[in-house]
Write a structure and sequence with these properties.
Layout lengths: L4 E4 L4 H9 L3 E4 L6 E5 L14 H7 L8 E8 L7 E3 L2 E4 L2 E2 L17 E5 H8 L14 E4 L11 E4 L3 E8 L29 E7 L1 E3 L4 E5 L5 H28 L5 E5 L2 E5 L10 E3 L8 H11 L3 E5 L8 E12 L11 E4 L7 H10 L5 H12 L5 E8 L2 E11 L2 E9 L8 H15 L4 E7 L3 H8 L3 E11 L4
Parallel strand pairs: 8-9, 17-18, 23-24
Antiparallel strand pairs: 1-3, 2-3, 4-5, 4-9, 4-14, 6-7, 6-13, 8-12, 10-11, 10-14, 11-12, 15-16, 16-17, 18-25, 19-24, 19-25, 20-21, 21-22, 22-23
Helix pairs in contact: 4-7, 6-7
Length: about 475
């Protein structure tokens, strides 16, 4: 798969902004000299440059020289906006000391520790008549000298003598900041519509104290690690939404499942359906600081639970399994083997999908009965699609596809033992990727046991590993 790099002018940034959000474009440049290096822009290019190839790709592009700047203001609040200026503040891995977020499941955490916005962007918005000023839209650091949202994901900012932060993702505007706009249209800071005027999140690489007037020195990304984290974040969001739909289907089927669906975390518990399918916590790879909420729910329900995270989320955490996270451009499609028919099931066609998965995966009771019962409710979920692979008219494989914000998430792929080794699993993967593309997805993601057969199938089809998630078991406490 060829990986090509192109450069778009500032005039084209608005049309490209949506793909910047999803990590396909690395914006580059400084104030007044915006440009975009496009990595894997075409459908049949690889979605992500490898670490060893990224420096060559960057060198091949016409990249404007990044312009250093300085820190204009440090802002904190006890929650909400405006954030008020401080004469100095210490920044640690969790953010600016003395600062707090009210909605901590959608703001904060180590990958969104600091929010940054440039005074030049504030002045452009204010010139349109909006009552915006430093701190009123919640940025922690008001900077001067460059447009932070035109920097590539992974760009490092060395602030003063101690602090180093790394650009991690755009800060999506929300209604909390609506009072900074005359028409309450807070989308004025959206990177999709105004690529140069968005706030950006950053993770903290080196802690320390910052003060207004501190110089800011920019360093371009050394590799694609930060971009991989951004893509893994998209995959986690799709998996979380898919799991919530699955749990809701089981609840609709009459099973008692307690679900917390709050911002970017989700937790399910069920004392009658033991095991990780209905007793799990998602979203904590990016918000490990909130894992105590998952543990509290497991303890309250009296169940053994499983937390999906990257690193050990508590000191005595036990690794139950390790999952590799994979992604590929939605346009990378392979052929279906001869003699295999793959079809999507109609909303009212239930039975074969669940039966194949239960049999192929050897799902034990009472989970097996629950899986069969929930299918008719899951079939009604708008963004969830079920597929079966048939040989001689009989279902021998089954899988599903969940669509979330232009991403196709592959789950529940299973093939009966009698038909394994004939390419049916890969055909199910490819067919779902094709369906995701047809429905507007630009990326397809999946999770598989590290080193297992499913992981090998994904890699054979060209999927790239973008991260790892470990399932940590929280034992039941009586």
């Amino acid at each position: 798969m060829a990986i090509r790099t192109k450069v778009a002018t500032a005039a084209a940034t608005a049309s490209l902004a949506n793909r910047v959000k999803f990590g396909f474009l690395s914006p580059l440049g400084g104030a007044g000299q915006a440009g975009f290096a496009i990595i894997a822009a075409d459908r049949h290019d690889s979605f992500l440059a490898s670490e060893e190839r990224l420096p060559r790709l960057i060198a091949a592009a016409t990249i404007p020289r990044m312009k250093d700047g300085r820190l204009l203001q440090v802002n904190v609040s006890d929650g909400g906006v405006p954030k008020v200026p401080m004469p100095a503040a210490r920044i640690n891995i969790d953010g600016v000391e003395g600062d707090r977020q009210r909605a901590d499941t959608v703001h904060g955490g180590p990958h969104r520790a600091v929010s940054i916005l440039g005074i030049e962007a504030i002045q452009r918005v204010a010139a349109e008549g909006h009552p915006i000023a430093p701190g009123t839209t919640g940025e922690n650091l008001t900077i001067k000298g460059f447009d932070v949202s035109t920097l590539a994901i992974g760009t490092r900012l060395a602030i003063g003598d101690e602090v180093i932060v790394e650009i991690s993702k755009p800060t999506n505007p929300c209604r909390t900041i609506r009072h900074s706009f005359t028409d309450r249209r807070f989308g004025r800071l959206s990177i999709q519509a105004y690529p140069a005027d968005s706030r950006m999140y950053a993770r903290v690489l080196h802690e320390g104290t910052v003060r207004p007037g501190d110089g800011i020195r920019l360093t371009p990304p050394a590799n694609d690690h930060a971009e991989r984290l951004l893509i893994a974040d998209r995959l986690d969001a799709a998996e979380r939404e898919s799991a919530v739909a699955f749990w809701a289907a089981a609840t609709a089927a009459g099973y008692e499942i307690d679900v917390l669906d709050d911002g970017e975390i989700a937790v399910s518990t069920s004392s009658t359906l033991p095991g990780p399918i209905f007793n799990s916590a998602l979203g904590f790879a990016h918000l490990p600081n909130l894992v105590h909420r998952a543990l509290a729910r497991f303890a309250a329900a009296g169940v053994t639970g499983w937390v999906l995270a990257e690193d050990a989320p508590w000191p005595t955490a036990i690794i139950d399994s390790t999952l590799a996270r994979y992604a590929i451009d939605a346009g990378e499609i392979a052929q279906t083997p001869d003699g295999v028919r793959i079809r999507e099931l109609a909303r009212d066609e239930v039975g074969p999908w669940a039966e194949v998965i239960v049999t192929a995966s050897e799902i034990p009771e009472p989970i097996a009965t629950a899986w069969r019962a929930l299918e008719r409710h899951l079939a009604l979920v708008t963004h969830h699609h079920r597929f079966v692979a048939e040989v001689d008219g009989l279902p021998v494989g089954a899988a599903s596809l969940h669509l979330h914000h232009h991403l196709g998430w592959l789950r529940a792929g299973s093939v009966l033992p009698s038909h394994r080794g004939s390419g049916i699993q890969r055909a199910l993967i490819s067919h779902r990727a094709a369906q995701a593309l047809r429905r507007g997805a630009d990326l397809v993601g999946a999770s598989a046991l590290e080193g297992g057969a499913s992981a090998a199938n994904l890699e054979r089809l060209g999927f790239r590993q973008v991260g790892t998630r470990r399932s940590y078991r929280a034992e039941r406490t009586d």
